[in-house]
Amino acid sequence: MINPNDRLLVISTSTIHGYSFLEYIKDEIKEFIQSDEIIFVPYARPSGISYDEYTQNVKDALQTVGVSVKGLHTFENKKEAILHAKAIFIGGGNTFLLLKTLYEIGLVEELRSAVHNGTPYIGTSAGSNLTGLTIGTTNDMPIVYPPSFDALQFLPFNINPHYLDPDPNSTHKGETRETRINEFHKFNHQVVVGLREGSWLRVENGVVELKGKLSARIFRQSEQPIEIESGILEEKVYSI
Predict the structure, then answer these.
(1) Which of 49, 54, 189, 227 has the highest CB neighbour number within 10 Å of its CB?
(2) What is the predicted pLDDT for the residue at 174?
(3) CA neighbor of 86 nearest in space, from 73, 107, 70
C-alpha cells in the first residue's frame, strides 16, 4: 500500500537528449510542488561533483520557473530542515553513496516522516531509486558500503531508472538490463519497474501514474515482463 499522503515525482533521469539539465521536466516540477522553494539533497555527487556545484546546477535550472533552491548541506540542523521543507529534491549520482550518507547523517526516518506528512518529494535517478523498497536494482557501482540496502520504501516495488532495451545491432555479448533484473529476481521477490529515459512516475492520493511518451517495463518474479503504456498503473501491476 502507498501512503495516501505521499506525493512523489519519480524521474528516470535529469537530462534527456536534446535538452539541458532538467529542462524537459522543470515545468512538471514547478506545477507538482505547488511552492516556490525546494531543499536539494546533493549527496549522490555524480562524477564526484561537489555539493555546492551540484546545488548550483539545480538552482540555475529551476530559477527560470521561479523556484529557489537551497542545498541541504548548508543547513546546520539538517533534520529540522527536512522536517520543515516545502519540497524535497534528491538528485542523481551514485545510489550507494547517497544512501550511505543519509544513514550516516541520520536522515532516513526524517525523510519518511516529512513525505508521509505531505511534503512533495522529487527524485531523479539515484533519488528515484530511494523511493522503492531497496536499492538492489540500481545501475551504479558499489563504491561505498551503506549499512543497509533498504531504501525509503514509499513505493511497494523497486525502481530501475535509465532502463535500456537490448540493441539488436550491438555486438556486445554481456548482460542486458533485463538479464540483470532477472538475476535479481532469483533472490528477491519484489516487482521492478524499468523506467526509460524521459519517463517518470507521479504519485498522489495513493495513485501511481506513468508519465512521458514511452512505456515502462514491469518485471515480476517467475513471470514474463510486460509493457505498460503511460497512464494510471493498476495496483495489480505492481503489487506482490
Answers:
(1) 54
(2) 79
(3) 70
